[in-house]
Amino acid sequence: MSSPSLRLRLLIFGMRWLVKPKLRRTGTPEKANRDFERAAPFLFSKPKGLKAFQEGPVSRVTAGTPMADRAILFLHGGAFVTGSQRSYRAFAGRLAKRTKAVVFLADYPVLQDAPFPAAPLAALNAWDHLIATGWKPHQIVIAGDSAGGNLVFGLLSTVLARNERPAAVVAFSPWTDLTLSGKTIKTNDNKDPLIPVSRMKEAVDLYLNGADAMDPLASPLFADFKNPPPVLIQVGEDEVLLSDSKRMAETTGGTLDVWPHVPHVWQIFDGRLPEANAAMRKAAAFVQSSFESAKR
Fold first, then answer.
1. Which of 3, 24, 134, 263 is deepest in the core (most CB within 10 A)?
2. Which residues are catalytic?
3. pTM score
């Protein structure tokens, strides 16, 4: 879309003048998480036919009848501070509806409950659960947003090293470099309508709890990717994490899909925002073609 929709312009205005200042002032991770959990029902549009039930460490989410042998393992975002299976269930349902796949929504400890490496270990546990219950690697797409995108690529590196190659990877605005060396963290600081750069190092320090930010599980930008599957990364051109997405696409040989005007992880507004609808249609088409290719 060449110009932003009215809904997008209103969303950006609200983020820039209300949400971003609030994120700058939020006192504790616990408060940030409570605020997000309360806001989640108003952010995510619940699709018709949504069904979810717990299956071991994952929530099995469908919207309609999924196609056989197609699963998406989704890792939610939230700066390692917020997000849960409950708050992301509606978005997982929208992804399920778009792709006609079953979505397994993984949970992992937020940093205030357990710091690194608890989150990447939980992501691997979710993958291993799917494999143990009969899913084949080529029947699974790994997807995630923001901090969940970090976990997506850490998991990808781990399973590729075990010769387990998923069908594809989809990442929405992934945070892949916890050393914060990306150029756009500085150049897009004032352009990004949502992420307060002033709080990023604080989140990193709390999450890592003394661990090395260069650890490939902490910053998968520095991981090895042996024979990676197709990768799609969607990101906004004004995001502070644009550099993370660009470099990750280069590292994995993936497709970088840069969108003008949009905020961080705008896809969560699928069903309510034209730009989110368009991005999700594109991501769903990529997922479906990847499943077809993986069959051959």
1. 263
2. 146, 239
3. 0.97
